[in-house]
Amino acid sequence: MADGLREVAAPFVVPGPLGVAVRDRLKQLTADDEQVLRLVGDHLGALASRDLKARCAAGLDHDGDAWAERKRVLTGQSSSRWAGSITKATHDQWALARRGQLAHVQGLQAAVRTVAHRLSLPVGEKGSKHA
Fold this sequence. Notes:
Elements: H1 31-58, H2 64-77, H3 80-120
Helix pairs in contact: 1-2, 1-3, 2-3
């Protein structure tokens, strides 16, 4: 490289998102390191899935005591820190789903009101386009 410019690496395609967030890059990992990380990720993912299932099964009958019990169960299979993180993420996911569900129901109710208004008008009358 006589012109002093660095050599550009060959282009490559980055795989699409896999549903996980990578917050740091781990470099110089051995095959054993990678295996351990995959096993830990699988274990924590399974715990999170089970916790979300338990949270969904509780439905609207969920309170702080139920949350604490779920955290106790998870702590026995991981650590208190991971259990807290998993139950918090589950709580946030549940709340987001409920908000989305409510917004969907409200949209359907608005559509029903619009259709009911339009059906209440005589055919061709003004006002059938806007409720």
